[in-house]
Structures are given as C-alpha cells and as structure tokens.
Predict the 3D structure of the following.
Amino acid sequence: MSKNDLYFMKKAFLEAKKAFNKNEVPIGAVLVKGGEILSRGHNLCETKQNATFHAEMVCINKASAKIKNFRLSDCVLYTTLEPCLMCAGALLLSRIKKIVYAASDLRHGAIESIYKVFENPHPIHTPILQKGPLAEESSALLKEFFKIQRRKKNES
C-alpha cells in the first residue's frame, strides 16, 4: 500500500460519510487519473430512486462525461466497499486500470467474496485488483448505518 492509496481512500471515505449524512448506504468512491481526482461519488440510490446509482457508477458516469470517453483505461478507482456485480461489470467495460477497495462485501461482492468476476483473464480487459486501506473504518460506518436503519424500522 502506498501513501497515495491511503490519501485517495480517505477521499473515498469522505464520500461515504456524505452518503451516510443523506441517509444513503455509506459507500464512497473516487476515480483517479495521473495522480489527480477525476471524479467523486457516493451512493445516491435512495435520492434518485434508482438502483444503479452506486458510488462506483456515479464516478464512472461523471468521469466519462468529463473526458467525453467511456474508456477510462489510465484510471484507478478507490472505493470503500468491494464492488457488486453490476459495478464490476461497468468497471470492466470502462477498462479501469486498477480497482482498490477497502472492505469486503460478504453479501454482494464481485471481486473476492461472492462472485470472482476477474478470476480469469477477460478478453476485453482485466484490471489490477488491490485490497486497500480503511477496511475497518468502512465496515464500521456501514454497521453503524444499518444499526440506525434497524432502530428506525423498529420504532415505526
């Protein structure tokens, strides 16, 4: 793990906190190109009432619009949770160079936990995968969020 990995994962974690404060599942991501943040995103599924507004998808869409190209081959994605199957597919098709994720997702993870999308080399592209920093902090934020959600549900 490099200093850059920690720096950019902290930025992704700040995005996760934004989601938390909006009553969204607290997952955040940043997309980096050449050492600069190209886009930032956090979950917006509740806000948009659209299941595809995951942090990674928000980042991909913002970055592609910004550079006017869906191919993000020189980019690194930092995300606070292991990408799901939908996001892993979008990352593959976007040709993201490297995916760095903090916490594993034992319910929906598509990198190592449930599905192993990149286990075999893909004919289009196979990204570099890296378990990154802040796994404990990211997991704790998610646990706190769902604890609050359960409490709200029980009170109503």
